[in-house]
Structure formats: structure tokens, C-alpha cells
């Protein structure tokens, strides 16, 4: 559930099973994308299965049990470092569970703001129809690493659904993500 929540403002579009029952462990051999939670007691059985392109993480120890190999190349390096530093700095602070949850949420929302927060400049109203100018959206980013990430990310179902929802909403509608974008822009303007 935590991983799915951290994707906000995007939504995981594929199989999501928070806790997989033992009788269904072989479902992880499915050739489709999935996020599945498996109890530690089934780990040995899980590791014996022929699973292709799988990222397996032990959430208890915080270690990778199996990797695909591109984990360090997917995210834009600078933003990845900022994300990691923010999370590690907060980890050392004495905080309540709610404060920690809010900090983690805001850290990931800021990450997505830096990647896609400029989307509204690429929504064009044509009568009653709103269109999203994908090519201009990606090309408007000055960072090459973010453009590379966007090239891959923009073909996912998560991004497609995000765009569909934008195109279906009235332009005046403002949600949590839009409020955070506005706050981020105001903070950047104050620094300048």
C-alpha cells in the first residue's frame, strides 16, 4: 500500500495484491507488471520460481533480494539523490508517525512536481475539448536526464491515465497535487 501511495498523483494500473496467500504464490510468474506483497515465510518457495524481470525487496531489512539491473539508471540522478537525502535526513529526526508520513508524502510529491509539475502549461483548450501536448511537455524540460525519464515514463499506463484525467477535468479544478505545485512555485519565487 505504501508503494502504491507514493506514486501519487499517479495510480498503479496493473495487478496489486497487498498480501499474497500461499496458495497463489505462483502468480508471481505472470508476465504482466504487478506489485505483490509476499510474507517472509514463503520467501524460499518464491525464490525457486521462474520469475522474469523482478525487483524483489525485503521491506523488513530494506534490502534488495533480486534486481533487474537498471534500478540506478531509471530515475534522474540529481532528483534521485535529492529524494534519498531528504528521506535519510528526516529518518534521523525525532518525529511522530504522522509527521513522518507527511514528510515522506511531501518528499515524493515534490519529486513528481519537479518531473511533471509543468504539465498545466501544455494543456490546450479548444472549445469544449482539452488536449495535452506531450511532445512540447517533454521538450520543455531543460534537464536531459528528466527528459530521458519522461520519454520512458510517458508511455506507461499510469501516465496515460493521468493525462486522460487532466483532459476530462474542468481547468478550474484544483486538487492536492495542483496546490503543492503552486506552493512549490511560490517558494521558488521567494528564493529568487
Automatic annotation (TrEMBL):
GO terms for molecular function: guanyl-nucleotide exchange factor activity. It comes from the Eukaryota. GO terms for cellular component: cytosol; nucleoplasm. Residues 1-173 form the UDENN domain. Keywords: Guanine-nucleotide releasing factor. Pfam families: dDENN (PF03455), DENN (PF02141). This is UDENN domain-containing protein. It comes from Scyliorhinus torazame (Cloudy catshark).
Amino acid at each position: 500500500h505504501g508503494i502504491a501511495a507514493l506514486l501519487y498523483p499517479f495510480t498503479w494500473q496493473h495487478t496489486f495484491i497487498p498480501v499474497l496467500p500461499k496458495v497463489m504464490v505462483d502468480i508471481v510468474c505472470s508476465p504482466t507488471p504487478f506489485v505483490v506483497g509476499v510474507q517472509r515465510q514463503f520467501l524460499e518457495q518464491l525464490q525457486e520460481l521462474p520469475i522474469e524481470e523482478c525487483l524483489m525487496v525485503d521491506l523488513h531489512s530494506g534490502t534488495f533480494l533480486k534486481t533487474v539491473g537498471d534500478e540506478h539508471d531509471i530515475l534522474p540522478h540529481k532528483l534521485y539523490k535529492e529524494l534519498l537525502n531528504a528521506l535519510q535526513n528526516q529518518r534521523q529526526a525525532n518525529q511522530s508517525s504522522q509527521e513522518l508520513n507527511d514528510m515522506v508524502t511531501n518528499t515524493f510529491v515534490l519529486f513528481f512536481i519537479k518531473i511533471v509539475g509543468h504539465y498545466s502549461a501544455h494543456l490546450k483548450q479548444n472549445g469544449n475539448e482539452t488536449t495535452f501536448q506531450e511532445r512540447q511537455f517533454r521538450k520543455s524540460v531543460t534537464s536531459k536526464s528528466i527528459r530521458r525519464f519522461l520519454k520512458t515514463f510517458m508511455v506507461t499506463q499510469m501516465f496515460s491515465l493521468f493525462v486522460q484525467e487532466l483532459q476530462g477535468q474542468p481547468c478550474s479544478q484544483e486538487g492536492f497535487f495542483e496546490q503543492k505545485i503552486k506552493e512549490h512555485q511560490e517558494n521558488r519565487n521567494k528564493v529568487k
